[in-house]
Each structure stands twice: as structure tokens, then as C-alpha cells.
Amino acid sequence: MNKTMTKIAGMTLTLALGIGLLAGCSGGNNGNNEGKSEGSTPTATNAQSESAEPITLEWLGYDSYGQPDANSAVVKAVEEKFNAKFDFWYIDSQKWEDNLNVRLAAGEMPDVLKITNRQNLPKYVTQGIIAPIPLETIQKFAPTYAKFLDENYPEVWDGVKYNGEIYAIPMTNLNGTYPTVVIWREDWLKKVGITKIPETIAEYEEAFTKFRNEDPDGDGKKDTYGLSDFALPNILGAYGYPGISDFKGAAKGDAGRSIQFTMKDGNVVIAAIQPEMKEALATLQKWYKAGLIDPEFITSENTTGYWADSQAFYNGKIGITGMSMYYHWRNELNPDVPDDAGGGQYKAFKETAPDGEAVFGVPAVGPNGASGTPMWDTASHPIAITTKAMKDPAKLELLLKMIEAACTDYEYYLMLTNGEKDVDWKLDGDKFINLSSSDTLAEANVKGKNVLNAKVSYDPFIKQRDKFDFAFADKYAKTSGYSAVYVPNLEAFSKYSNTLNKLTVDTYFKIITGESSVDAFDDYVATFRANGGDELEKAADEAYKQMVGE
After folding, report:
1. pTM
2. Do 372 and 481 form a contact (C-beta atoms < 8 A)?
3. Within 10 A of 135 (CB to CB), how many other CB atoms are there?
4. Which of 22, 243, 392, 500 is most buried per CB count within 10 Å?
5. Which are the contacts of 538, defined by CB distance < 8 A and separation ≥ 6?
6. Gap between the Cα atoms of 252 and 271, Å rounded
7. What is the pLDDT of residues 210-244, one digit of tens each?
């Protein structure tokens, strides 16, 4: 328990605590770092080697942006290493919940399953989809990884438990130690006569007003706005812990984006119903009435493709974006990467607006000094083994040995995350050089990149590989942020979250657009509390205090 408290106390960037439930995208950066192979990869033994036939895993343990090529060099290398075969499930990442639920409801299930939202874990348990995993088994077949979690991320174990049993293998997110970024159209700021990157709410408002009224794109039309949905949590954060961390996600039904927790007076409370959010919504309503917010803000930023893409920003509709990470918008080129074009979203922006300039800003500072953008969770998507797979214990053993190999052999890890050696990447001495940084996420999946590492994101190897990226992060992304304090899975969350999420999204939307008055916030709070909010808040407070030993 002391490790958990130490981990929480060590998050020095935070201004407040809350359950962000922000899934990370760890392990997929395209950068370079110094590195030598450490240790040796355990060979396939016991159940794997004793079987004359390869073990086949139906695999959904990855972020599925493209269908992996079963004949790719990466897939073939892993199959040979472990005497395995992989039957890849592909679930459209944009429609993950809906499409996966259809297949699960039909009685289909993979062997290995990525859990995109940890609040689904109790449901998967009660539906008989995922099986418990003994801690001793993890420690036996993945000892290096188990020790890494214990020493660096002890809190992530709690997020994969149900009734005291472990039901998934935790995955971590180094990027959860950095806040999400604030990105401005610097060329727009210069065009309207602003030479200082805005910092306060008043300075933000001045910039947004000029963006709306002074034709920053020079097309002679009043068709530009200050902001859309990606920047809304930044504005909420100028008043306190943001009540909604992702408006589009919450509107699509992800309750983890709106039912979040923060610490106040030593107790866990629900952020969305705190009085400071009423003040924040008043500011947003004022801006909406003034035309500073894109009227289609619920859906206008990310209309297609990768979740961090902001088509509204790329196409010159708005002058600020955010919600993504430092590496998405890296605007300094790595001299050791021949075809480096910067972060993926910076590259997409420059392709659409080659004369545009994007610059890192800071979260807005509110009237009482509050400031911060949401920080991602230190836990990434856990990996579960299904009840179907557990009928053959060798499948769990194989999965754990694959995980162990990903954190004991540096070059093997590079193959899993970056592709074929000397084709997709190479080592110049101990310096990593990425030869395929221009691959899209879909193209990377086809090659097998970030498919068979089971979401393992091993900090020593990431920092070894991506030295340039983390130097950039420390330079531009050490801003204020609201970090997550983990609350264990709650039955009350499963019971009430869908109703409370819909109520929260509807209320926030109606207040921002002026359909409801700001005072409607008070009625919302009363309705929220009466419809399970009080019970949920009490359960969260009790669970947190039990977890930390209070």
C-alpha cells in the first residue's frame, strides 16, 4: 500500500486528482534513442515446445487500425520463435465497442482480448467472456514484467481485479506522466496582431474573438472560429478538474469521459457536478453566443481516421486544438531519422496547410488560478485471456512468454513495435534509426507493428529508443495537468454510469449552446445525485480509501 501512496504522491505535475480513464497510446512513438540488447529472450518451453503442432491464438490484443498481414516478417518471426500461429481479429477502431459487442453477443470470442475500457471488465467477467489469471502464473512466466509493474506502476494491478481476482494483465503508459497538449495556429495569432501565446482565460477570449471576426485565414469570409471540442476540457480546467475530458467520447456513450472523480477536502467527489463547473459553463455559453465556438463542436474536430486528428484544425476552421500528446504534434525534426516529418498530427496539418504554423501553448489560467489539461492514465489497455482460451492452459503460458520476451530483449521489442530490422529500422551503434516513420497506423498494423507486443510498453526500452522524443516532451509538455487517481472497479459505476453520462452530456451541451440557462446546472446536480450519483460518489470514496489504507 505504501508503494501505491508513493506513486500517487510522486505525480508532481498535478493540480487535482480524478479518474481520467484516458486510454493511452503508449509504445508507438516514432523516434530514436540509444540502445543495446539487454538480456536474452526466454525460449518457448514446457507446453509450447512439447506440442508437435503450433499453438494457435485468435488474437485481438492490439490497436486495430489495419488488418495484420499473416505473412509479414514480424508475424512469421514471432510464430517461429514460439511455435505459434495467429488468427487475427480485426475490429474497426472507430466502431470498436459496437462491432465487438455484436460478435461477442453471437457467441464468438478471440483467445486474447484487449479491453479498451476497464469499466467493461466486470461485465466481461459476469458474461463469462474473460477468465481469472493467477498472479503466481504471471510471476512464473513473465517475472521481469511482473517486477516492472510492482516497482513502477503498482496501482495498475487494482484496475484489472474483480472480487479480488486478476482478470487481465495490466499494461502501462509512460506518457501518462505528461499532460495533453495545447496547440495554437501561430500564423493566425500573428495575422490578428497577437505576438504572445495566450495564457489566461482573458487572453484566450481575446484571441478567439479576433479569430472569429478578423478573417485570420484571409479568404474574405466569416467562417473561422476559436475552438471546438478538443479544447473544451482545457477551458473547463481553468476552473477546476474538467467535468468532461472528451466531449465526443462522452457523447458516443463512453461514461468514463464524463463520470470522473477528483479529490476535495480529503474526499473523492464527482468532478462534473462541482460548482466550479457551473462557472466554466457560463464562460463557454458566453463564447458560444459570441460565435467563438464552432456550432458543430460535438463532432467537428475528429471526423475520420485516427482519434487525435483534428480535421477542423487542419482545414482552417478553428485556431486551437489539443487533447492529444506531445509526440502527436512534435514540430522539431529528428536529425537521425532520414524521412522524419514530425509528429503524425503535425505532419497531417502541414500536408493540409503547408503555410500554416502550429505552436505549443499552455493550458488556460482561470480567474482563481486553476489551470490544466487532462493527463492520461498511467494504465493502458489491459490484455485478457478468454474463457475459451483457458480451456487450453498452454495459451495463457504462450501469451505470458510473449510478454516476457518483449521486456527482456531490446532488439526483439524493436521488431514488435517498429517492424523488420534493417528494413523498417536499424541500429547505428547503439542509436535507433527509424526507416519507416512515414507509415500510417494502418500500414504499420499490416506490417505487424504494435500487433504482437500485447500492448507491452516497457519504459526502459522506450526511453532507450526514443531519446529525442522524450527530450522534446520535457521541453514543451511540462505544463500543468489534472492527473488520475485510480478508483477500483465499482458495481455502482456499471449500474448508474450510462444514465449519468447521458444526463451530463445533455446538460453541458444545452448550457453551452444556450438552450438551457446556466442556472439549469443546479437542477442537473440535484437530478444527478438522486439518480445514483450520491451512491456512486460514496462508493468511489470508500473504495479509494480502502485501496490506500485510510
Report:
1. 0.70
2. yes
3. 12
4. 243
5. none
6. 19
7. 999 999 999 999 999 999 999 999 999 999 999 99
